[in-house]
Design goal:
mainly alpha, Fumarate Reductase Iron-sulfur Protein, Chain B, domain 2, 4-stranded parallel β-sheet, 54% helix
Length: 665
Amino acid sequence: MPIRETFWNIPEWAKVLLYVTNVVGVIILVSRFYLRTKIWAQGQDELKFDRLPERFARVGKFALAQVRIARDSYAGIFHLSLFVAFIMFFIGTSLIALEEYRIAGLFFEDYKFIEGTFYLIYESVLDFFLVVGVVALMLALGRRWFARPNTLTYNAGFQAMLWILLIDLLSGLAIEAFRLAAVQPDWQVWSFAGYTVSRALLLFNPSEAFLETAHLTAWIAHFSITAVIYAILLDLPLKHIIYSPLNIFFSSFKERGALAPLDLEDETIEAFGVGNVRDLTLYQLMDGDACTECGRCQAVCPAFMAGTPLNPKQVILDIRTGIDRVEANGAGPVPLTHEIVSDAALWACTTCRACVHECPVLIEHVDSIVDMRRHMVLMEGNMPDLLGMAMQQAERAGNPWGNPRGSRMDWAEDLDVPLMADKKQADVLYWIGCAGAYDPESQKTTRAMIRIFEAAGIDYAVLGEEERCNCEWARRAGNEYLYQEATHSNIAVFDQYDFKTIVTHCPHCFNTFANEYPQFGGSYDVVHHSTYITTLVNNGHLSLDQSLDQLITFHDSCYLGRYNDIYDAPRDVLSAGGLRLTEMPRSRDRGLCCGGGGAQVWFETHQEIPVNEIRLAEAIDTNADGVGTACPFCTIMLTSAAQSKGVEDMPINDIAVIVAEALKK
């Protein structure tokens, strides 16, 4: 009967060498990991062990199933293949340990189970995954040698990691091949990989002594390499097999659209934001070590595409550099902003969350960038001049344009728009926002929404001059003080009146009201106008003319899509008007930012190719008759790009404007 002889040709001294070297390797690994966790513990916050079922589910989805890695078909396939191969090797080795060390005997009387048919299947399965692992590593090396995508990190560490793993697998194959060549059991064909190599060896008529010596040498090499991997694991990119699952497990359950609030009234806090490595939260420090350097964040970053200094991958690696300096310097301060992460990189971020959405290990790039901005703005007064001017105007006049508060309703001079101050209550409080009140293009959307409310017979009202900028953009730019001041002011105004729902056509306002105002005691039913209009159409409150025979491409707003998962509603609105839709290559959850988020609309960063022009080019390439939007800032940015490129004949309209045109007379 086929049976596995675990330590064939292995003397006792070699077994001792195996145990000693591997135990030493594991001790080194554990001790170094412990020292790293002590640095993490110097960060703010504490580890959270709440919602354990959901945390384990995340590990299963993102670490084991690797759903985000699989999006990149080529790299995803060989990475997942290699991962599964090593999981199978771990299972195979564990089964040997269960049998060899009598562990199975604690539960089963007959603990010898790797024999007979099970053993033959066991050998075939492990040989199959050995081949899979070798092929996957060759593909990975080939990708770095020949394809050389610019998203990857190219250094000796990655080459060493791949070669060490490949040599480890090949040494395992050599062990099997030399053993089969020496013993030649009847069932050897089941170990098809080792059998194939053993047949090749036998062509040279090697002596039994040679095969035994070669087998022992390969065996020692194989397990010595394993011990070395343990010892140097945290020096190799392979360290992500430890750090990344931990990062996924402890990742935050906060609303995607909500930044963590600062307690500005706590007098014990010496500094706000992140200027020093130790100002980072424990989770942000973990992010730095968990990064796999795959470059997926870099590949989708609009600021990086535009040629700015921002590379989200490098920001996270800069955090890792800071951790390394803490480890080297001990208790001394380690500045992060200015010295490790450049100001220009931080100010280039549009906070679009494309990087976060693509990261396979759930790193929160945007939160770290905003926290560093907070330090520069709140502690240093360091910000671009135009941005500072917009903040001053928002504080003084209640809007970043600096227009008089009294002109906030100028767009409605010829309309009879009800005010909350007069009605005191209404079903719908329509929040217009600063762009909708002051920007000529966005005023078209505001007027269109009034037509829609009137056509549907909605009981609505607006705040008029009581409305002030919610300063969402200022919060993303780091000015938490201005944001919280505006928040408390707006909540006080809201709470004066009786309404059921806040409707707004601005995704930024929608996001801050829905996801961030609850942090300050303001919980409201908030609906984006795309969802609201869709409901009106579906309920029969709006009748639309189906004769708009045009081809439209829709641009997804980051704060509507990636932040709040609203993708279908605006498309449903356009379809209801009889329009035909065509998608840009980057759409829905992978849509490209317009370039205006993160306060970018209020100041200029040096861009080799402006983000809004990149996006407009994608829209033009669809051969659509026009572009549909659902965000005033997207409309502003794309319209600006059209003017710059001389393609003003391509209509760029908010979905409300399109619906208003389609209303049956």
